Structures are given as structure tokens and as C-alpha cells.
Amino acid sequence: MNFGTLAMALVVVIAVPAATAGYAYAVEAGLRFLPEQRRQGFRPWLWLAPGFAFLIAYLIYPTVATFILSFQNRDSTEFVGLENYATLIGRSGFWQILLNTGLWIVFFSGVTVGLGLIIAVLADRVRYESVVKALVFVPLAISFVAAGVIWKFMYDFQATRGTLNAAIGLVGADPQSWLTEWPRNTFMLIVVGIWMWVGFATVILSAGLKGISSELLEAARMDGATELQVFFRIILPLLAPTVAVVATTIVITALKTFDILYVMTGGQYQTGVVALSFYQERFVSHNAGTAAAVAVILLLAIIPVMLVNIRRFQAQEAIR
Predict the structure, then answer these.
(1) How far is 235 from 238, CA to CA, in rounded Å?
(2) Of 25, 158, 230, 320, which has the highest C-beta tally within 10 A?
């Protein structure tokens, strides 16, 4: 271990807790000089001040800086107005990227949440529920890069290496090039994302399902409700808040998709998405201006999702 690594470890283990304790002591010591009524007003703000400082330094400032950078040229030496945005819009390939991102949002999010809900409901009815949830959750424990490598071998054209082509070869079908033809390649990549994230959706939705009163479900069944009626009229409405949270997480994940595409196709064969486009603009083309414009577009795409989620939470709080 070199000196720099050791020094950083000491800072994390010793200096950070010491600084936190010192700040707490200084705040309380300073408040003693104020009247009791003013202490109650100042104390929350003083305790929240470090959090606000980190929020400004690591979220607000980078966001504003990126927004400004999107109006500058490739080396950030002069302002070019909306030229970077016009350049992106004028590229036919960028519209392909937006289309692929839309496909990820719709199919990746929809299938992941839907399949996770089905598995959660079915697993709740069997004794080995924990085993089922563990098995479907295992892929999420694998790194995205490793998952990309695994599935790239599964999609390989050579039947001796490609599991999928070997499988269809058993029924006499010719091997297929799964990752070189659009839109099939985009959907095959989405399958990888679903395989990884359906376990997350299953576990969270299963936890929400446990919060539904079993007496309520049994009463509905005794009144003659079928299992489909119980699901659509009782389970699904009561699970709606949990489904919304899971769907929001999955949609944001779809917008940030990068690792799987970078490993499996590198954005070739018309498989690019917005997050991968940002990487290519910044670190391949070395164009800071257009890269920042892509980042701003990605941020603007995420904001409506967050607003919908915030309004849903506010509606739930109003009901409570």
C-alpha cells in the first residue's frame, strides 16, 4: 500500500468522523450564546448546512456548469449558443438514438415491472418463495460488464459458442446474427436488461404484497371473487404506490443504460442510446459542448419522471 492510499484511508476513517463531531460540538457551543427561542429556529438550519453544502457542490453546481457548457464550443473557449443542440438535432443518427432510448423505456420498463409483479404474486403462493426470489435476484448481483460478456457469448453467431444459435439449431433453424440487425439487436439487448433487473422488481413488489391484509383477500374470495378479480380490483390498486416507485427506478435505469451496450455492441449497428452517446461525444470525439448538450437532454428526460413520482407521493400524503 503506497503512502497516498494510506493517507486517504486515514482521512476517511479518522478525519471525517472527527470533523463531524467537531462541527456538532461547535454548533451546540455557539447556540448557547443565543436566547432559547432563537436556538430552536437556528438549530435545524445549522445541522442541515453541511448537507446543503454537499448538495450545492456535487449536484447544483455540476448541473449549472453542464448547462453552461452545452452552449460552448468543443474546447469550452467561446459561447456558440444553440449550435450544439442544432448539431445533435441535425444528425440522423441522433434521432435513431432517441428512438432506441424510447424502446428501452417502453419495453424494458414495462416488461420488467410486469414480469416482476407476476413472479411476486405467484411466488407468494408457494412454500419455496425465498428460493424463487433469490434465484431471480442473482443476476443483479453480477456486474453489468460481466452480464454483457456472458450474453455476448450467448448471442454469438457460431453455434459452438452461441447458446441461442445452438438451441435453434436443434430444431433445424439457421444461425442468426442477433446483434447486427436493427431493431432485433435492440430488443435482444433489452432482454439482457430485463434479465438483470426483474429480480429487483420482484423483491420490492413482493415486500409491498406482504403489506396487504390476507384477511381482506380471503374475504373477497369468500364473497365469490375470482383470482383475477382479486388481483385487478384489490391487489393491484393497493400495490399501485409500490409499482410506481419500482417503475420510476426502472425508467431512470433505462435512460442511463450504458454498460450493457458498451460491452456488447459499443453503440454500433444502430444500437446507441443517450447515455452511450454522451460517452462517445465526450471521450471519443472529445467534444465537450455536444457532450454537455446530450447530458442536458438526458436530464430533461428524467425530470418529468421525477415530477410524476413527487406528485404521487404528495397525493399519498394528502390521503394519509
Answers:
(1) 5
(2) 230
